[in-house]
Amino acid sequence: MSLNVSLPPELENRVRQHVESGLYSSASEVIREALRLFEAYQGVQAANLAALKADIAQGVADINAGRVREVSMSSIKERGRAIRATSTAV
Fold first, then answer.
1. pLDDT at residue number 1
2. Distance between alpha carbon 70 and the CA centroid of its chain, in Å?
3. What is the rounded distance in angstroms from the CA atom of residue 84 to the CA atom of residue 49?
4. Rounded to the nearest 5°, which phi and psi values hold at 7?
5. DSSP code string of 19-69
6. Per residue in 52-86, pLDDT tens?
7. What phi and psi, each to the nearest 5 degrees, are found at residue 75?
8. What number of CA atoms fall less than 13 Å from residue 1's CA on the CB side?
9. Exposure of 4 by Cβ count < 10 A (0-12 exposed, 13-18 middle, 19+ buried)?
10. Measuring CA to CA, how many Å separate 17 from each of 11, 27, 30, 31, 58?
């Protein structure tokens, strides 16, 4: 399949630089590699989104099951400072 793509000058220069570096023998190879990397990136993003949705669902389930309680940020800070004080005192 043949496909013509228009790139802004900055991207065109970057493609040319990759070919001139010798790592790629043609602009097509650069674009193919860029697409492979983009698809891998999208896969990671999809996995991250799925994990986030699962975490949210678990949080909602915990709320519905009564496994959560309100916490005070000041008490969390106090506990953290107390732990830090005892660990740095040694």
1. 82
2. 30
3. 34
4. -120, 145
5. HHTTS-SSHHHHHHHHHHHHHHHHHHHHHHHHHHHHHHHHHHHHHHTT---
6. 999 999 999 999 999 999 999 999 999 999 999 99
7. -70, -35
8. 3
9. exposed
10. 10, 10, 10, 13, 48
